[in-house]
Design a protein that fits this description.
- The protein is of the alpha/beta class and 259 residues long.
- The protein has one domain (3-245): Spore Coat Polysaccharide Biosynthesis Protein SpsA, Chain A (Alpha-Beta Complex).
- It contains eight helices and seven strands; from the N terminus they run βαβαβαβαβαβααβα.
- Strands 3-2-1-4-6-5-7 form a seven-stranded mixed beta sheet, with helices on both faces.
- Helix 6 packs across helix 7.
- It is globular and about 55 Å long.
- It starts with a strand and ends in a 14-residue tail after the last helix.
- 41% of the residues are buried.
Length: 259
């Protein structure tokens, strides 16, 4: 079993360097995919490579979306002999100190996808916290409750062959829709899932916090995505119902201590 940290990044400024250094404290293999950034942040990443031989920096010529960046990185990782990838956002939201927890769980359950279950602090925008419940509800329906939990949280540990299989099942899931659609398709493919309670932090502008989320654009994308997935769900319903009757997600009884 070989695990690498995979960090897609688009215009997150100095936060990228901080995220990389924090990740390197817990895992020597960190792969960064610069998704067409125009803020020069890739220079900070490149400057760290001389002191960290396990750090790799990939550059996409133009911005293609988070899903495309993760796909590009996952393909390179599997070519390099890695079996699993732990995805982290580059904007400081995901706690690097939880990397060992994910790695330990992966050792015990290498067949499973480990999905972060966000624990929001008081600074989290209420609109974002409540709004994601709609997507979570639809994902729950589309998988007959297989075990996604939160469909939008991006700190996850994926078995790479299963992740690439999920990507091959769709020509979508290349932008903001990536986290949700891939999770649903992993469920459809029978991949066991474990929810990992994980704190999430929203940085203020004074702290350098940035967000690529655009309310109208991204919610329109999610609406179209769930319409497509519901069609796929209805087609797969007999199989999904049979699997549910047989017990459903085989790791559903794995309980993780919150903190």
């Amino acid at each position: 079993m070989r695990v690498a940290i995979l960090i897609p990044s688009y215009n997150t400024g100095g936060l990228l360097k901080t995220t990389i250094l924090q990740a390197l404290q817990h895992c020597k293999d960190v792969w960064v995919v610069i998704d067409g950034s125009t803020d020069g942040s890739e220079k900070d990443a490149e400057a760290l490579r001389s002191d960290h031989p396990g750090l790799h920096v990939m550059k996409l010529a133009k911005n293609r979306g988070k899903g495309s960046a993760v796909l590009a990185g996952a393909e390179k990782l599997i070519e390099a002999g890695f079996t699993h990838a732990l995805t982290m956002d580059s904007d400081g939201q995901h706690p690097a100190e939880f990397i060992p927890k994910f790695l330990s769980l992966a050792e015990a359950h290498p067949e499973a996808a480990l999905l972060g279950q966000p624990i929001f602090g008081p600074e989290a925008p209420l609109l974002r916290v409540k709004g994601r419940r709609i997507s979570n509800l639809w994902a729950h329906i589309e998988t007959l409750g297989w075990g996604i939990g939160d469909s939008l949280f991006g700190m996850r540990l994926y078995p790479l062959p299963e992740l690439l299989q999920a990507f091959r099942g769709t020509r979508f899931a290349r932008r903001f829709d990536f986290d949700t659609e891939v999770a649903v398709r992993l469920c459809w493919n029978g991949v066991p899932m474990i929810r990992v309670p994980t704190p999430v932090r929203y940085l203020t502008a004074e702290e350098g916090g940035v967000s690529q989320f655009r309310y109208l654009r991204d919610n329109t994308l999610l609406t179209w995505m769930h319409a497509r997935l519901m069609c796929g769900f209805l087609f797969r319903l007999p199989l999904l119902a049979w699997r549910t009757l047989k017990g459903g997600n085989p790791t559903r009884r794995v309980t993780i201590q919150q903190l």
